[in-house]
TrEMBL record:
Keywords: DNA-directed RNA polymerase, Nucleotidyltransferase, Transcription, Transferase. SUPFAM superfamilies: beta and beta-prime subunits of DNA dependent RNA-polymerase (SSF64484). The keyword Lipid biosynthesis does not apply. It comes from the Eukaryota. GO terms for molecular function: DNA binding; DNA-directed RNA polymerase activity; ribonucleoside binding. This is DNA-directed RNA polymerase. The gene is RPB2. The lineage of its organism: Eukaryota, Fungi, Dikarya, Ascomycota, Pezizomycotina. The keyword Protein transport does not apply.
Length: 269
C-alpha cells in the first residue's frame, strides 16, 4: 500500500503502478475530483489518438472536460457528477422469480418445439427461455421501480435478437434518469412521474440535518432524499450503458410534449 506497486518482488517488471494512491487534500474540489477519477490502462507514451478522444458512448457517464494535460490527456477521465458504479447484488432470487413466472430452464428447453422463444440471460449466463418476454420485462421493471429489486439491477430486452438480459454484477457504470409514466390506464400517461409533491418534500429536506444519521434515523425524522425517496417511489431510476441502448430517452421537456402530440395524432411523425 505504501508504494502503490502491486506485484511479487521477483516480477517487478510486470508490477501494476498506482493501484493505491495518497488522497489529494489540496482543496475540497480536488478531493472530490480525485475520488471520481478513472484510469485507462494503456501506455502513456503511445502515439495512437483514438483511446484519448471523446466518444458518443461517454455521454452522461464521463465528464467531457476534466482530464489532465500532457501524456495522460484523455486516458485519465472523471465520472460525471450524477454517475455511479454498481456495487453488485445476488442474482439467484431473480432467477427463482422468473422460473415462477413461466421461464423454462435451459435443461428442459427443446429448440425444435419453440424456435421463436426469447433467451433469458443473467449476468451473461444463459439460464432459460420465455415465450412472453414483453410481460416478463414489464413485471421485472415494475418490481425494480417499486424497490423490490435492487435499483442497480439492469434489465435489457433486445427485441431484434430475441434476448432478455439481466445484470446484477458489480462495476457497471450507471446514471439516474427521470421515469415517464407509460401506464395506459394512468391519467398521468406520457408525463414525468415527478410532481410538485416530490419537489416540495425535497425542499423540506434542506431544513433537516442528516449528515451523521443512518437510513432508519433519517426515515424517523421524515427525511425524503434521493435514494430513499425518489428512487424508492419510482420517480428516478438508474440505467447502465447497455440498458440505455434499448431505451427511448427524452432530452428536453419540449421533446416530451412533441412526443405526446405525435402519439395523440396531433402532429405528423
Amino acid at each position: 500500500l505504501a508504494t502503490g506497486n502491486w506485484a511479487e518482488q521477483k516480477k517487478a517488471a510486470t508490477a501494476t503502478a498506482g493501484v493505491s494512491q495518497v488522497l489529494n487534500r489540496y482543496t475540497f474540489a480536488s478531493t472530490l475530483s480525485h475520488l471520481r477519477r478513472t484510469n485507462t490502462p494503456i501506455g502513456r507514451d503511445g502515439k495512437i489518438a483514438k483511446p484519448r478522444q471523446l466518444h458518443n458512448t461517454h455521454w452522461g457517464l464521463v465528464c467531457p472536460c476534466e482530464t489532465p494535460e500532457g501524456q495522460a490527456c484523455g486516458l485519465v477521465k472523471n465520472l460525471a457528477l450524477m454517475c455511479s458504479i454498481s456495487v453488485g447484488s445476488v442474482s439467484e432470487p431473480i432467477v427463482e422469480f422468473m422460473i415462477q413466472r413461466n421461464m423454462e430452464v435451459l435443461e428442459e428447453y427443446e429448440p425444435l418445439r419453440s424456435p421463436n422463444a426469447t433467451k433469458v440471460f443473467v449476468n451473461g449466463v444463459w439460464v432459460g427461455i420465455h415465450r412472453d418476454p414483453a410481460h416478463l420485462h414489464k413485471t421485472v421493471l415494475r418490481l425494480r421501480r417499486a424497490g423490490t429489486i435492487d435499483p442497480e439491477v439492469s434489465i435489457v430486452r433486445d427485441i431484434r435478437d430475441r434476448e432478455f438480459k439481466i445484470f446484477t454484477d458489480a462495476g457497471r457504470i450507471c446514471r439516474p434518469l427521470f421515469i415517464i409514466d407509460n401506464d395506459p390506464s394512468s391519467s398521468n400517461k406520457g408525463n414525468l412521474v415527478l410532481n410538485k409533491d416530490h419537489i416540495k418534500r425535497l425542499e423540506d429536506d434542506s431544513t433537516l440535518y442528516v449528515t451523521a444519521m443512518d437510513k432508519e434515523q433519517r426515515r424517523a425524522i421524515g427525511y425524503y432524499g434521493f435514494e430513499e425517496g425518489l428512487i424508492q417511489d419510482g420517480v428516478v431510476e438508474y440505467l447502465d450503458a447497455e440498458e440505455e441502448e434499448t431505451s427511448m430517452i427524452v432530452m428536453t421537456p419540449d421533446d416530451l410534449n412533441l412526443s405526446r402530440q405525435v402519439r395523440a395524432g396531433q402532429l405528423p411523425v
